[in-house]
Automatic annotation (TrEMBL):
Gene name of the encoded protein: BnaA02g13650D
Name the record gives this protein: BnaA02g13650D protein
Transmembrane segments: 12-34, 46-69
Key words, A-Z: Membrane, Transmembrane, Transmembrane helix
Domain of life: Eukaryota
Length: 82
């Protein structure tokens, strides 16, 4: 029984992720529309979106790409010595 549930979850992960991304996109579009209708300048709103996206992505890139960033340099150093 547990094996079937794990197998089903493995198959549904991609679909679940796509649905979550679509829902998040819809919510952000609704909030964007409400902010513009309320009087916020669209250029300022876009600047805020880019700023907060950058703040969110920098820590993720530092966490997930830490090993892969240093791998080519370590490979070069390994074979460049005597």
């Amino acid at each position: 029984m547990a094996r079937k549930i794990c197998e089903m979850w493995r198959e549904m992960k991609a679909i679940t992720a796509m649905v979550v991304v679509q829902i998040a996109t819809a919510v952000l579009n609704i909030l964007f529309k409400l902010a513009v209708v309320d009087g916020m300048e669209p250029r300022v709103l876009v600047a805020y979106r880019l700023f907060f996206a950058t703040l969110f992505m920098i820590p993720l890139s530092l966490i997930f790409q830490r090993f892969f960033f240093w791998t080519p340099y370590l490979y070069i150093l390994k074979f460049s010595g005597p």
